[in-house]
From TrEMBL:
It comes from the Bacteria. One of its GO terms (molecular function) is oxidoreductase activity. It comes from Siphonobacter aquaeclarae. This is NADPH-dependent ferric siderophore reductase, contains FAD-binding and SIP domains. Residues 15-113 form the FAD-binding FR-type domain.
Length: 234
């Protein structure tokens, strides 16, 4: 995208792409930063798992899933993965209290089905915002739920810092790149977890492999890869 197109889009969108000011920042680990923004978002509808677009450079946008929102108070929290080699990561690392940027209207697929009792969410660092916004819904609505997260060692304490429960953490090795290792998961062999809704996010390669196993076992699956090695801007 050329710079003038981005400038024109922001000008035309107006209130549909409001300015947001950074209220607070917090490093949950060296690679995970949570930022609270404040702005005029009363017209926005934040469905669980929907993403907002943020302009991260003159020519690029990236999508982020809010981990918390309060449209009445005008508050939005976003959890950023600072992986160190991209414009989104660089921008998030630079943001400080008082800085401002624009966010788009939330949009995306329906990720949460309140009618299904058993819910499993799979992902990685890029899925922490989704996990954070789904967790209180799971608890409030009496779901049986589990989070399966593949995380770098330096980030393994972040789910606990976020207050998440029922979390199983896996190292970023080959666990979710190998169908046999996935089939060996106790969750998939437990009859009490039949009829589970699986939501797969994060690394595209892991998502595809996990999805293949779940589909052969006739589970209900919704998947959305957030990133892929060697591909910018997924």
């Amino acid at each position: 995208m050329k710079k003038w197109i981005g400038d024109a889009m922001e000008s035309l969108m107006g209130s549909r792409m409001p300015h947001m000011q950074v209220l607070t920042t917090e490093y949950l680990s060296p690679e995970i930063k949570r930022i609270r923004f404040s702005g005029a978002i009363s017209a926005m509808n934040f469905e669980p798992g929907h993403a907002v677009a943020i302009r991260v450079s003159d020519t690029e946008y990236r999508n982020y899933t809010p981990s918390y929102s309060d449209t009445t108070a005008g508050l939005v929290d976003i959890i950023f993965h600072l992986h160190g080699h991209g414009p989104g990561s660089d921008l998030a690392n630079r943001l400080q209290t008082g800085d401002s940027l624009r966010i788009s209207m939330p949009r995306g697929w329906k990720h949460y089905d309140p009618t299904v009792r058993n819910q499993v969410v799979f992902g990685d660092e890029t899925s922490l915002g989704l996990a954070s916004i789904l967790f209180p819904l799971f608890r409030a609505n009496g779901h049986r739920f589990q989070f399966l997260l593949e995380l770098e060692e330096c980030n393994r304490d972040v789910p606990a810092r976020l207050g998440l429960e029922n979390v199983s953490i896996f190292p970023k090795s080959q666990a979710f790149r190998d169908e046999e290792q996935i089939r060996a998961l106790s969750l998939l062999r437990d009859p009490d977890w039949r009829g589970t809704h699986y939501l797969l996010t994060g690394n595209v390669t892991s998502v595809r492999t996990f999805r293949n196993v779940l589909r052969e076992q006739r589970h209900t699956v919704r998947s959305q890869g957030y990133w892929l090695e060697g591909k910018m801007g997924l």
